[in-house]
Amino acid sequence: MIPTRALCAIGLAAMLAAAPAGARDLTIVAGGGPLQDHMRSTLFQPFARASGIAVADTSYDYNVGPIRAMVQARNVTWDVVMVEAPDLVQGCEDGVFERIDWSVVRRDKFLPGGAITCGAGAIGWGVAVFYDTRRNANGPTTYAEFWDTRTFPGKRALRRGARITLEVALMADGVAPGDVYRVLATPEGQARAFARLDALRPELMFWSGGQQPIELVNAGEVAYAVGFVGRTTNAMRSGAAYALKWETLLYAYDYWAVVRGSPHAPAAMRMIEFITDPAPLLELTRLWPINPVTAAVANDVEVRARNPLMMTNHVEKGLNISTEFWIEHGPELERRFAAWLNR
Amino acid sequence: MRGQNALAAVLVAPLLLLLAAAFLVPLGTTLLTAVADRELADTLPRTHHALAAWDGEALPGEEAFAAVADELGVALEERRLGPLAQRMNFAAGGQRALLLRTARAADGLTAPYAVSLPALDPRWGERDTWLRLRDATGPVTPLYLLRALDLDQAPGGAVTRMGEEDRLFLTLFLRTLGVAVIVTLLATLLAAPVAFLLASLPPRWAGLGLLAVLVPFWSSILVRTTAWFVLLQREGPVNATLVALGLTEAPVQLIGTRIAVIVAMLHVLLPFAILPAYAAMKGIDRALIRAAASLGGSPVQVALRVYLPLAFPGIAAGGFIVFLLAVGFYITPALLGGPRDQLVASFIALFINREVNWGMAAALSVLLMGFAACAIAAARLLLPAALKGRLSP
Question: Is the complex ipTM higher than 0.90?
Fold first, then answer.
């Protein structure tokens, strides 16, 4: 009997010790990779030093599922998260993110659309066609040409998912960028997009992680890929011989948001105010060609001249990925895309 | 005697508790999650009450309209509309937009709500909208199980088939069971000779041979799968060998094919087939074999009529274990397969991690378990009969 009781006591003690994580540091979560390393040195740690608040950072794959789960389970272990726009707006309505405290974060420093109920603009991102000129001297400059396997033979890589991929397929079918979302909202438009994907299917490979298109192109697994311009331009600056076609750009903003129920919410708001300010962001632009949503940095002539590969210099050629469209049609089209992919 | 029974009960109790905690409770919870439908009752209790009294014939009364207008606004303000919005949008696209639109405008609506709601959005004047809400009044719904079978629920509850372009899961179940059956057959075919060899080797060599089976068995699935990735890639050793032997001109694509998935699954699962077969063969009394031979049995007759029937329970047990594990495989198809090689488990993970739709994940799990149980029951019925036919003279 005694050993049992002793065991029970030990077990209970272990559970009690493990249960409350205690004083967890303010935790900020972004997309990882070299960009996050630079954010740590120019944004996160300077904030920690200036405020005296201990900050930890970790990365995730932009899948908000775990965030929804931690809010539902009332066990919030992340505080500030970089989120994509449709997830942010939907999560805001569903009570997954806190409303931004605009008395702490200054609202007027953002580009239009950079300050919304639950999010403060972080950085812009985009995807565009690129290829390795050492393997292929010429390549497609439009999506119609991306589909033209006679002129440009070889495999192609697209994102595994409906978003971005369906827009691209419609543009390949001759729909003007300005009409893409109007057409894609109709059943006929959706059928057109999937028919285009069917036509290219034998040549298609799909990626899910941001580094994959680079690896596929480098290994010669595909000839042409649609990939993140941030990673592509960074590889170009360190010597990769890529051709990047800005005419095929699709772009959007990511936002900083605070997870609902965060025990560090006030500190999280202060952190967002700090890391969206021009001074630390200017430091970051020296290390990585980010596309700031803070107006003073985005419009900085010197920053733009220093980074010809900065997406901000090219957005007028691109298509802004529609947040509203993907909130409304996302679940249905993603389901259909998954079914298509498995057929 | 009674004291002994009580003692026996006490001794067995921990085992029963363990069984309940590790098997019955998770199973029951999964079953419940697959059919539970609490979102409407939790989010809009008055609407829920009003719909319970509705006959479903004409539009519901003013009471239901008023409850919807009032409760949706409050739920949005308190930001707890998410689960219901997701539940309704899963049943039919566009429902989320309707609920949120109504919730945002709720403050400006005035009585009679049976007029002002349809004026805001004509869908509130349609019987189907209300039937869909009534379908969600719970406490249980067949929706998730139907969807997992590529079926749909029309407003009011009639079962229909999903449109051609939305069908997915039946193919997925067939593919999963197909891959599992192929891997099981190959594993038992490969395992039987290996186990026979191990069982007939002198102890020292048998120990070494067993080690060769056990070391991969103890290393992580992820490591073994990644190793196959290295072996099978375009510029990997398998392709290099194929090209060197002149079997192909250019490297073949192996990663992202069904073959890669089956080969790697086979490698990962082979020890589960070898070990039970080895245990059964090790236990066979050699005197029986000698006796059969001395009574005039040819080697083939001895193998088929004495050795195999004795070893069969072990081989079959290994096959069942391999089958059950293969049915739930996830990492190997994800890393080595293409989009058309994914199994049910990857969609269960998708619904849990990405969609946060636990009803759907649970429905897929329940059905997968059901199909696997049917396959095993069929095998248990058919195998002894087939064996008897083959082995009796």
Answer: no
CATH number at residue A26: 3.40.190.10
Residues A41, A70: Cα–Cα separation, whole Å = 28
Whole-model pTM: value is: 0.83
Judgement on whether residues A22 and A107 belong to the same structural domain of the protein: yes
A225 and A142 in one domain? Answer: yes
Structural domain for A9, as ranges: 2-124+253-310
- The tokens describing B13, both together, are 């109790």
Q: Given an 8 Å threshold on Cβ–Cβ distance, is A221 in contact with B234?
A: yes
- Please tell me whether residues A242 and A147 are part of one structural domain: yes
Query: Could you count the other beta carbons within 10 Å of the beta carbon of residue B163?
Result: 11
Rounded to 10 deg, the angle between the B258-282 and B221-232 helix axes is 130
Q: Does B361 touch chain A (CB under 8 A)?
A: no
How confident is the prediction along chain B (393 residues), in pLDDT tens digits per residue? 567 888 888 899 999 999 888 888 988 999 999 999 999 999 999 999 999 889 888 899 899 999 999 999 999 888 888 889 989 988 988 888 899 989 989 888 888 999 999 999 999 999 999 999 999 998 999 999 999 999 999 998 889 998 888 889 999 999 999 999 999 999 999 999 999 999 989 989 999 999 999 998 888 888 998 899 889 887 789 988 998 998 888 888 888 899 999 999 999 999 999 999 999 999 998 899 899 999 988 989 888 888 888 898 899 999 999 999 999 999 899 889 888 899 999 999 989 888 888 999 999 999 999 999 999 999 888 877 666 544 443
Write the single-letter amino acid at A17.
A
Q: Give yes or no for A65 touching B (CB within 8 A).
A: yes
Which residue, among B42, B341, B355, B358, would best test binding to A if mutated, counting the most A CBs under 10 Å from its CB?
B355
Is residue B72 within 8 Å of B91, Cβ to Cβ?
no
